Amino acid sequence: MPVNQPSNIGKYRWSVVALLFFATTINYIDRQVLGMLKPVIADEINLSEADYGYIVSAFQAAYAIGLLFIGRLIDRFGTRISYALAIAVWSLAGCLHAAARGALGFGLARFLLGIGESANFPAAIKATAEWFPKRERALATGIFNSGSNIGAVLSPIIVTGLTVAYGWQIAFIVTGSLGFIWMVAWLFIYRLPHQSKRVGAAELAYIHQDDATASEAVVEEKIAWGELLRQRATLGITLSRFVCDWVWWFFLFWTPDFMEKSYGVNIQQMVLPLIIIYTFSSFGGIFGGYLSSSLIEKGHSVAFSRKAALLTCALLVVPVLLIPQVNGWCEANAALWIAIGIISIACFAHQGWASNIYTLVSDYYPKSRVATMTSLAGFAGSVGGVMAASAVGNVLELTGSYFVVFLMAGLAYLAAWLILQLLLPKKTLA
Fold it and tell me: How far is CA 308 from CA 204, 237, 418, in A?
């Protein structure tokens, strides 16, 4: 529930969050299928660790390329149509994985998937800015972003069942088809607040309570693409995303492989650990959003509240650097569950981090530029992800150890927070 929400206004805006939540759930189901099936597919078509790293890089490269233009398209053509087209593209791409027979085929399917999925967060963040005042945006973002964890929880259940019963190709086809169902519901339901017949005057005024401020009017007049790139806030947000976004991709795409390589966990045995990891992390987004929103309600500035929540989350990720030492502390089964617990906390923290880092965009930029800036920040994160995915694959190929990877992952969010602390202005701009 929102923090100190007035009781005399409507709540229809939360139905928009529900739509965004389901889209993000489907988004993560589709992107996680390959990671779940990696041990099975690698054996069948003889994929090396480096091959898999390059396939992951193909997705992230496409994601980055998509983010270069998708935000501007969403700002130009609107959230409703842009989001629908994007989910159609990524759903088709998800289905096409079933036709792949080698590294090249999977790389091409992942590339198309990345292009389509690049629209999810710019569109969702823009929809949140369109439907929520500042005081509720981090919480709304945390709720819809928790769909990424629900998708990650559902994926092993769905994928394992379908793969065991019908083969891995059917798993891609079924999960890829889910987006087409959502697209129909989205086109039927979604409108801007002032266009919706289900939004009363009180809720509409509540939604737009921040719009008439002088600061937003000034930014709206002056901001342009060139100026966007010159702002310190732009540098801070994009550089922080570049430094730490790859860690979440690492957990998403390599956790099944880590469990299989380090503890001999097969595809059926890894269902419970993955459910635990992503169920736990699903609460992180809500926690992160609630934490910053509650600090704002207590009288702290928006900038201070976001940074405090981000620092809390960054500190919770640090213990992952200890994971390679766990095997020396206890026997293998206990070590597995300790590692799962540490990864669960880190994923919880990442989602709390994400709720606030995404919301920073709508804090510092006007609504007309939110999708563009979200795309730019996502592009920076994806470039880091492309570089990291290839590096992770090659490090594992050369060393056979996760030591270096977990060390870097444990420190990445603290480094990103320091960047934000140095570069973000003391006051929000929008």
Answer: 30, 15, 12
Residue 231 — φ and ψ, nearest 5°? -75, 140
3-state secondary structure at position 9:
coil
Neighbours of 182 (CB within 10 A): 20
Residue type, 201: A
What distance in Å separates the CA atoms of residue 80 and residue 137, rounded to the nearest whole number? Answer: 19
The CA distance from 108 to 61, in Å, is 11
> Residue 6: inside a domain, yes or no?
no
Question: Tokens 């989910």 sit at which residue?
Answer: 87
Please state the domain count of the chain: 1
Cα dihedral 239/240/246/249 (nearest 10):
-130
Q: Is residue 1 part of a domain?
A: no
Q: How many CA atoms lie within 13 A of 329 on its CB side?
A: 12
Q: Which residues of the chain have pLDDT under 50?
A: 1-3, 213-223
Residue 133 lies in a domain: yes
Q: In 22-37, which positions are buried (b, 16+ CB within 10 angstroms) versus exposed (e)? A: bbbbbbbbbbbbbbbb
Among 132, 150, 193, which Cα is nearest to 2's?
132
Q: Which domain covers residue 174, as residue numbers?
A: 13-191+198-423
What are 299-332's pLDDT values in tens digits? 888 888 889 999 999 999 999 999 988 877 778 7
Query: Do 379 and 68 contact (CB within 8 A), yes or no?
Result: yes
C-alpha–C-alpha distance, residues 204 and 214, integer Å? 20
Output the pLDDT for position 131: 86
Residue where the block lists tokens 């007309």 = 368
Q: Where are the beta strands (DSSP E) in 205-326?
A: none
CB 215 within 8 A of CB 134: no
Residue 120 covered by a domain: yes
Q: CATH number of the domain at 209, please.
A: 1.20.1250.20
Q: What is the pLDDT of residues 177-208, one digit of tens each?
A: 999 999 999 999 898 888 888 888 888 888 88
